[in-house]
């Protein structure tokens, strides 16, 4: 397809579709505020009174896991680097088994734990990408998203969050499928898309190189991905709070496995969407041609290009991206309120259940407003936004190590746990920050070729983003090896260091008779 600097902008029908998504989400909050008007305790508000069943919780788990990153970034990843991210499916399977059999039994009995969340970035990042392509008002979208999310979280509690997630998941799937179906129709079927992807080297599944410096191989994606997703499903408050809201541990376990099916389906959709993206633009890359300024804008650009003659469908896709943000942010708001009320207020105050219930709603409102404020802060980060997201992600590894240490090592003490956590955090931050200053060479990332030969532009850009100057490749040994480690191994490093250091320090500072096996 030829490049076209004007791929259209939002029509009235698109704004209507987007507004309906927000209104339905808000309506769910109103409904549960009315339906649960007799709830007396903060537990009812924050955990749904543990009355939820497996199906809605499983769909909520899938929706909150699917942020706008899945909708915007996964297809762009396939477009640039190939479809081998489909092996995330292997890590999903391992993660659900580990979470179900190791972490679930522990957390179901203790209800909760604390964590640090970053939600403003989740709201702002997709808003920026979509604004620059669709022309949709940036801050109008950010504030409306934040306000609606805060409204239904405050009004309806966890039950509203879960059932809104179910609706938002359906919106995300509809948005994905609208792009896929239109692409298949335009390109003449599924077979031409697969053929284009194969000829363009995008079907790079069989890469079993064990080199840990390679950005994506079967091993980095399946093993490294397992540690990344385990830190999300195994110990993340927002996810844990969902499955412990089930009425029994068997329902909680079932919710995880039903959620696994949802994750695999979403993964396949995002990978095929990336193949569609490549098939449409195989002769004219919008990024290299300067029609978009970042890879995350490729999917919105495709939507405005191929769906511009179908009023309402671009709005559906944008609603899908924002649904990813809403489900992720609502999870975070609810989790933060839970930690504040149950861990900081209940143990140290003499508030009644009714007072704690009102305090839960107040905290939910407060954190919602803070999230909107954080989106404003994220807008000031500019070029280091991606670095900030990477650094926050690195924190999950040491935390996973901390909880793993506590569960599998009965002799671990507080000194070992704290030392292990700090050691893992320092090491993973070191490699993560270093990788931002000394990015891995292209030979390790292996971006695939893109061209602008078929563009119908008077001045096509000459962005040679795969090239480097000789001076850039002559880094010190540390940059060539340690900093070039695949980013998917950052979490693994943090986890292993936290556990190993934690065990050693616990043994050295505790009773050495634990070493003896009786």
From TrEMBL:
Any one GO cellular component localisation term in the record: extracellular exosome
Name of protein: Solute carrier family 5 member 8
MF (Gene Ontology): organic acid:sodium symporter activity
Keyword Ion transport (UniProt): yes
Key words, A-Z: Cell membrane, Ion transport, Membrane, Sodium, Sodium transport, Transmembrane, Transmembrane helix, Transport
Homology family: Belongs to the sodium:solute symporter (SSF) (TC 2.A.21) family.
Record flagged with keyword Transport: yes
Principal location: membrane
Membrane topology, record value: Multi-pass membrane protein
Compartments reported by the entry: Cell membrane
Taxonomic lineage of the native organism: Eukaryota, Metazoa, Chordata, Craniata, Vertebrata
Xref: InterPro entries: Na/Glc_symporter_sf, Na/solute_symporter, Sodium:Solute_Symporter_SSF
UniProt xrefs under PANTHER family: SODIUM-COUPLED MONOCARBOXYLATE TRANSPORTER, SODIUM-COUPLED MONOCARBOXYLATE TRANSPORTER 1
Transmembrane segments: 12-34, 54-73, 85-104, 116-132, 138-155, 162-181, 216-235, 256-281, 316-341, 362-381, 387-409, 416-438, 487-508
Pfam families: SSF
Gene Ontology annotations of biological process type: propanoate transmembrane transport
């Amino acid at each position: 397809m030829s490049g076209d600097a004007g791929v259209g902008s939002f029509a009235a029908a698109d704004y209507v579709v987007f507004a309906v998504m927000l209104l339905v989400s808000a309506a769910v909050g109103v409904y549960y505020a009315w339906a649960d008007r007799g709830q007396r305790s903060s537990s009812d508000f924050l955990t749904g009174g543990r009355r939820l069943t497996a199906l809605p919780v499983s769909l909520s788990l899938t929706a909150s896991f699917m942020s706008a990153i899945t909708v915007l970034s996964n297809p762009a990843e396939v477009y640039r680097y190939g479809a081998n991210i489909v092996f995330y499916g292997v890590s999903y399977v391992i993660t659900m088994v580990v979470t179900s059999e190791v972490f679930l039994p522990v957390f179901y009995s203790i209800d909760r734990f604390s964590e640090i969340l970053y939600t403003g970035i989740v709201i702002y990042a997709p808003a920026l990408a979509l604004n620059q392509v669709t022309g949709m008002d940036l801050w109008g979208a950010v504030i409306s998203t934040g306000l609606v999310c805060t409204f239904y979280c405050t009004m309806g509690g966890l039950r509203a969050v879960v059932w809104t997630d179910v609706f938002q998941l359906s919106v995300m799937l509809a948005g994905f499928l609208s792009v896929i179906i239109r692409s298949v129709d335009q390109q003449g079927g599924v077979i031409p898309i697969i053929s284009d992807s194969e000829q363009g080297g995008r079907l790079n599944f069989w890469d079993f190189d064990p080199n840990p410096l390679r950005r994506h191989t079967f091993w980095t994606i399946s093993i490294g991905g397992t540690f990344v997703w385990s830190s999300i499903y195994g110990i993340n408050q927002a996810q844990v709070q969902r499955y412990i809201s089930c009425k029994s541990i068997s329902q909680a376990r079932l919710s995880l496995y039903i959620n696994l099916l949802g994750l695999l389906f979403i993964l396949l959709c995002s990978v095929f969407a990336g193949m569609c993206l490549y098939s449409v633009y195989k002769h004219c890359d919008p990024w290299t041609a300067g029609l978009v300024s970042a890879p995350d804008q490729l999917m919105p650009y495709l939507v405005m290009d191929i769906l511009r003659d179908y009023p309402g469908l671009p709005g559906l896709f944008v609603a899908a991206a924002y649904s990813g943000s809403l489900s992720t942010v609502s999870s975070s708001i609810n989790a933060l309120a839970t930690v504040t009320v149950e861990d900081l207020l209940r143990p140290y105050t003499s508030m009644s259940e009714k007072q704690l219930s009102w305090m839960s709603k107040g905290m939910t409102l407060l954190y919602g407003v803070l999230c909107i404020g954080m989106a404003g802060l994220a807008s000031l980060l500019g070029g280091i936004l991606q670095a900030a997201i990477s650094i926050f992600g690195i924190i999950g590894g040491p935390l996973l190590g901390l909880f793993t240490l506590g569960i599998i090592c009965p002799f671990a003490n507080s000194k070992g746990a704290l030392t292990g956590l700090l050691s893992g955090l320092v090491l993973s931050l070191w490699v993560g920050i270093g990788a931002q200053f000394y990015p891995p060479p292209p030979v390790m990332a292996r971006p695939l070729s893109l061209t602008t030969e078929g563009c119908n532009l008077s001045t096509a850009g000459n962005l040679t983003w795969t090239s480097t100057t000789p001076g850039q490749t002559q880094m010190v040994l540390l940059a060539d090896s340690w900093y070039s480690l695949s980013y998917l191994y950052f979490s693994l490093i943090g986890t292993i260091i936290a556990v190993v250091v934690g065990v050693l320090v616990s043994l050295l500072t505790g009773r050495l008779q634990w070493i003896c096996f009786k």
